[in-house]
Prior knowledge:
It is built from 5 helices and no strands. It has helices spanning 3-8, 16-25, 30-34, 52-62, 80-85.
Amino acid sequence: MSEMAERMAVIRGLDLYEILLEIENRGIAFEQLLTIPEQDEWIYSDGKSTTCVAFILAMYKEAGVFDPLYDSIQVTEFTIRDAYMLKIFESNITRLPSWCNTEYGKIPFCQILGEYRMELPEYNTVEPYAHMNENCPSLPPHYQRPLKC
């Protein structure tokens, strides 16, 4: 956990106004608060909160896909694009089932359903690394990703 996350870890049960007062008292800027990487183990007032992609990646994490990086990967920091860019998928398309590419032409993955062909730029190209996606910018419309952010 980052030093900033550790400093904020004890704040519980506060509304937004109270949080703003607390971070001011601790000498933390609101912009800094927004950049603290979310931790997979955080539980919110209404329970654990996750996106669909974080849920799938959490299952991958528990299955050992990210070993030996288990403790340094926070799947709650991943977007859908980050997930499909992970270099964890079959890279030899001859090993994919033959039906994967018949209707859509040659693509490096299996599209099971859908009226439109999916395009996944940079699919299966980024090796997982410690603290992945914890400092990545996420500005639309291109969501440019620096290396090792």
